[in-house]
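re: ur question from yesterday

yeah so i grabbed the chain u mentioned. its 286 aa long if i counted rite. heres the sequnce exactly as i have it in my notes:
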Amino acid sequence: MPGIIACIADSPSAGRVVQGAALCSRAWDMSVEFVHFGDLHPDSRSRLEHVIVEGMGAPATLIEHHPDPREPVSQQVCDLAMGNSADLVVIGALKREGTVRAVVGSTARRVARRCPCSVLLISTEGRAPPQWSRFLVGVERTGEYMRLCERVLCLARQVGPMAEVCFAREFRSLLGGVRSSPEDDLTDLSANERIELGDLIAGLNTENVTTRAVTLPGRPGHEMARYADDARSDLLSVLGPAEPLGVLDRLLSHPLNLLLDQLPCSALIHRAAPASPRRKDTSCRD
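ran it thru and got these structure tokens back, copy pasting raw so excuse formatting
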């Protein structure tokens, strides 16, 4: 069974999706399976197979998935990920959407909200995955955040020595829109929180990666997206909710919804992998 399912279509963004899947595959030592939903014309299959070889450096599996056409594609993706016990789904996503899609959400955003595993949204704008160098990761105190940080650090080391990982702590503030700049670092947190964040970073393997920390007072989700836009981040990474987000979460402006509405760059929505005898720790390739 694949560790990574990459959703691919015969479109200009196909190359970026392949490159994102290849980067994660190398960094986390996972296999990749490329999936096209629906029939593929022979010419389209040939083009996609060429794009896959270019991005992966070798041929990889490309399958045509034919589920019930009455079922939304987003649900098909989630069902496929669950059925295959996938660790990650990679899918292309527009940075900005039209009015109707902003209300109901695109396929990629619905997958990010509801998928049982981690999801990597590859933005159609900004730098392509091989050129990524600026990584932003939201951190808190729980153990799963440590795993997220380790995975992002693995990605940063994979792209090269110029990579920088910024660890950001969001917290609600009465000042709302007033937020720290990169130079402010940890000054907006209490002494105990500064120590905890420092200890978290000290416990990580940051070899060959430049690291820094910032604090983002204001509205969780919204501030993270805004900071990523200001800092021109290439990849924004956050811990996703364990349960699928529904209509009520959208009405109540869940932090993940606020982030996805803006989607300033590519985004990794990390979720804890469900227990399975076949799984091993794939947080980073040896």
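noticed a couple things. The chain is about 35% helix and 20% strand. also Strands lie at 4-7, 32-37, 61-65, 88-93, 118-123, 134-138, 164-171, 210-217, 235-239, 266-270.
anyway ttyl
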